[in-house]
Amino acid sequence: MGTSIAILKGINVGGHKKIKMAELRDLLSEEGLLENIKTYIQSGNIIFNSSEYNTATLEHFIQKKIKAHYGFEVQTIVISAKNLQYIINENPFSEIDIKRLHCCFFKSEPIIQNRQKLEIFDASPDQFKTAKDCVYICCATERYSQARINNSVAEKILKINCTTRNWKTCLKLIEIADAL
């Protein structure tokens, strides 16, 4: 049985796509595909065990359950705990205050031409580093909302769906995953 993390995009923001985490845990446990389900904060972070290792299958399952129960679609990215640990270990900005750090997770692998476009994007004074399945973002200030590189920019240039979490959340997600 493997441990994975699902990150949902755009829920409980500004009164839109409201999902209560306790209700979501109950909903996702109904069929037994996901076990030991934990959630972290209201922005849609789900940590669970499953005998299913195919992330696309897990994403489809979660999206289907949410659509059927709540009536709206929610983009979902599932990452194995092992992969999240690797992403954390490879952080090129590990010496920077975590209040300035974010990770933009890719839903799918971008084509090389779009990746190259992102890599030459001028985000100064912010910094970023593109990896295989994410972009590490180091904001010039603690205000991600003012960053020149963010989730919307990454999606537009890469032409794929992405979801971003701050570094504190990334660390908490792996901590919870390790405890399952």
Task: Give a quick set of tags describing it.
180 residues; Alpha-Beta Plaits; 4-stranded antiparallel beta sheet; globular
Notes on the structure:
The protein has about 180 residues and is α+β, with helices and mostly antiparallel strands. The protein folds into 2 domains: about 80 residues, Alpha-Beta Plaits (2-Layer Sandwich), CATH 3.30.70.1280; about 80 residues, Alpha-Beta Plaits (2-Layer Sandwich). About 35% of the residues lie in helices and about 25% in strands. The chain is built from 6 helices and 8 strands, in the order E-H-E-E-H-E-H-E-H-E-E-H-E-H. The strands form 2 sheets. Strands 2-3-1-4 form a 4-stranded antiparallel β-sheet, sandwiched between helices. It has a 4-stranded antiparallel β-sheet with strand order 6-7-5-8. A hairpin with a 4-residue loop joins strand 2 and strand 3. The longest helix has 16 residues. It is globular and about 45 Å long. The model has no long low-confidence stretch (mean pLDDT about 95). Pfam families: DUF1697.
Overall average residue pLDDT: 95
How large is the share of residues in beta strands?
15-25%
Q: So, CATH architecture of the largest domain? A: 2-Layer Sandwich
In spatial order, strands of the major sheet run 2-3-1-4
Structural class: alpha+beta
- The radius of gyration computed from the alpha-carbon positions, rounded to a whole number of angstroms, is 16 Å
Domain count: 2
CATH topology term of the largest domain:
Alpha-Beta Plaits
Largest sheet: 4 strands, antiparallel
Low-confidence stretches: none
The count of DSSP E runs of length 2 or more, i.e. the number of strands, is 8
**Shape designation:** globular
The helix tally amounts to: 6
End-to-end separation in angstroms reads 11 Å
The CATH class of the largest domain: Alpha Beta
Secondary-structure element order, N to C = EHEEHEHEHEEHEH
The helicity comes to 25-40%
